[in-house]
Amino acid sequence: MRIGIVKHLNARPLTWGFEQNSEHQVVPENPSLLKDYLLRGLVDVGLISSIECLRNSDVLSVSMKVGVCASQQVRSIKFFKNKKENYPPYRILTDNGSRTSMALVRVLVHNDSGQLPEVSPTDPKIIKQEISIGRGSHMLFGDNALFAEWDPEVYEVKDLAEWWYETTGTSFIFALWASKKPLELPDSFYEDSLKYGLTHIEEIIEKESRLPSDLVRTYLTQELHYEITESDRKGFELFGKYCNDLGIL
């Protein structure tokens, strides 16, 4: 089985079982590109941006049992609001790794200000350069957000999951497993990989040498969760409604 896996730390518990199973061929990439791989038949299943599951529901089978989810903090998806420039910004440079996050920041800024900003998917290296000189408002995703640096005199940094929870009272699903119809695998296929990952969580933590172990453990076991809850489902439905109403879908 060719399995498209998200290459960032936030997905490790979901994908660890597949990564450790030599029967599978894993293809690591950003969730935004994995959707394209899936539709082109380059992978059989993929962990893709949740908004792409909404956009492509007619051609994709989606498991609603496990995913990358957050209740009140996600840490790895950040909006850098420039305090020295007009708000809301006309355009936000957005990390091109996650299409869900691109849409979410637009929804949240619209709910906050009444205006829908444009977004420009951008190489995160360029975004980091812009942040370093204090120009513009931006969004970073995944490991790029985890390791971001900024001047607090210039930027107010907002965690998108926390902002979503404050706005809606629901949690959020960032990525889901999907396959191209007619292929539809049982939910247990994905759940078993997660169970393996959670059972071997200390191995995952040990492999991550860029951050303190305690922080990684908190991030993967408390701030993120992977079994989809009723609050996640409600948040997913609400996000779809917002996106549809704003023409983002």
TrEMBL record:
It is an enzyme of class 4 (lyase). Catalyzes the dehydration of chorismate into 3-[(1-carboxyvinyl)oxy]benzoate, a step in the biosynthesis of menaquinone (MK, vitamin K2). It catalyses: chorismate = 3-[(1-carboxyvinyl)-oxy]benzoate + H2O. Keywords: Lyase, Menaquinone biosynthesis. Pathway: Quinol/quinone metabolism; menaquinone biosynthesis. GO terms for molecular function: hydro-lyase activity. Gene3D superfamilies: Periplasmic binding protein-like II. This is Chorismate dehydratase. Signal peptide: none annotated. InterPro entries: Menaquinone_biosynth (IPR003773), MqnA (IPR030868). Its EC number is 4.2.1.151. Transmembrane segments: none annotated. The lineage of its organism: Bacteria, Pseudomonadati, Spirochaetota, Spirochaetia, Leptospirales. The keyword Acetylation does not apply. GO terms for biological process: menaquinone biosynthetic process. The keyword Nucleus does not apply. SUPFAM superfamilies: Periplasmic binding protein-like II (SSF53850). The gene is mqnA. It comes from the Bacteria. Belongs to the MqnA/MqnD family. MqnA subfamily.
